[in-house]
Amino acid sequence: MKIPFTNDKIVNLPVEEFNELLSKHQLSEAQLSLIRDIRRRGKNKMAAQNCRKRKLDTILNLERDVDELRHDKSRLLREKVEFLRSIRQMKQKVQSLYQEVFGRLRDEQGRPYSPSRYALQYGSDGSVLLIPRAPAPPRRQERKQKDRRK
Fold this sequence. Notes:
- By secondary structure, the protein is mainly alpha-helical.
- 61% of the residues lie in helices and 7% in strands.
- Strand 1 and strand 2 form a beta hairpin.
- The radius of gyration is 42 Å and the shape is rod-shaped.
- Belongs to the bZIP family. CNC subfamily.
């Protein structure tokens, strides 16, 4: 159809320059229709390429985020294991201290206090008080139900 412009020029010119270019040349309706079709297809092709690029960038960013989250998770799991180990050690130390304190405590007659009847209460000021435990509620004896088959 003898179009006086390159496809690259048709597709890449800004709208105002493109319209100005078309108005400067005497073109038939068929030529104008073809030029507009070339521009539309070219713009669509560029938009599709940009869309695919954005999609790949998004995927790469998400993969990087997933890797970071996996590293964070493994670090947090290691920290959790270490904290649990520390808690277990602290509980053992508290239990040892508890037993040592009860081993040294004596009532007015010189008898040791029973850990089952008394408890130690720790104050926020560092004080330790010996308090009687509340009596345990009486346990109900649960009866075993026999399976009766009919």
